[in-house]
Amino acid sequence: MKINSLKSVIILGLIVLFSNQVWSQDLDSLLDKEIKPQTIYAAATFKATRIVNGHSVEQMKKKQLDFRISHRFGDINSGSYNLYGLDNGLIHFSLEYGLTDWLEVGIGRSTYQKTFDGFAKVSILRQTSGAKNMPIHLTYLFSTEYISLNTDTLMKNAYSRMSYIHQILIARKFNESLSLQLTPTVIHRNLVPTELDKNDLFAIGLGGRYKLSKRIALNVEYYYVYRPNEKAISQSIPTPVKYYNPLSIGIDIETGGHVFQIMLTNSQAMREGGFIGKTTETWSNMGIHLGFNISRVFSFTK
Description:
The mean pLDDT is about 85. This protein has helices at about 1-35, 230-235, 270-275; strands at about 40, 65-75, 90-100, 105-110, 115-125, 130, 135-145, 160-175, 180-190, 200-210, 215-225, 245-255, 260-265, 290-300. The strands form 2 sheets. A 12-stranded antiparallel β-barrel has the order 2-3-4-5-7-8-9-10-11-12-13-14. A two-stranded antiparallel sheet has the order 1-6. The chain has 2 domains: about 1-30; about 45-300, Beta Barrel (Porin), CATH 2.40.160.40. It has 3 helices and 14 strands. About 15% of the residues lie in helices and about 45% in strands.
């Protein structure tokens, strides 16, 4: 009887062990079927919707409103009498709203040439990894600007005061510290300074962000502006205006509810039609402006 009991115990143990292995294998196969590969979206490629002056691929989510204040002081090389530019300055206000997660619109007003502006920003591709692999962000930006300054007699009607900007924003977040963006740009100006100037102005921007800490990042932004007739224009008029490529260096500081950006730039204008096409100062002669952007985001979701 004892031998039979021992056999029964051994057989029962083998049955339990085998059943557990089968159950474990069945459970693993079920979990593999239920847990599908996930798509991971790259987040916070840049801290704000601007790199420095120009737009980044970041934009407001649905029902989020961004109230932005931008300020650029005067030239540092204006001397101590003007407190190195702090006595003078330009300002720009804007309201920017996310209609959907992929469409943002905005309006603004700048004291630079008393310019009104509006834009629409459309997210086409988002950088992803995992189940779907997309190596870049791709965004299209359309902006229009209206100069309301009354000192230029050539601007006799509203049509002459308008300009239109088209940009493709191509960005990639390489890791938690480094992000880069390429920005091909076309600016159409209804009125140009001389007959030799082209109405269409082509430029390409390069911007980058390097994260220094959890809440602080270093940003650099440069636009190369293609001006094929620059030499002919300078020879055709007695006192030609010399234009330069804008270079800007800034620091982003995230403080909870808003992002504070402080920068140095050789352009005092804060909209694409100004800082890309009309920068008249250069870093080499200290034609640099201290400036800042303040962004405060309000959410209207429940």
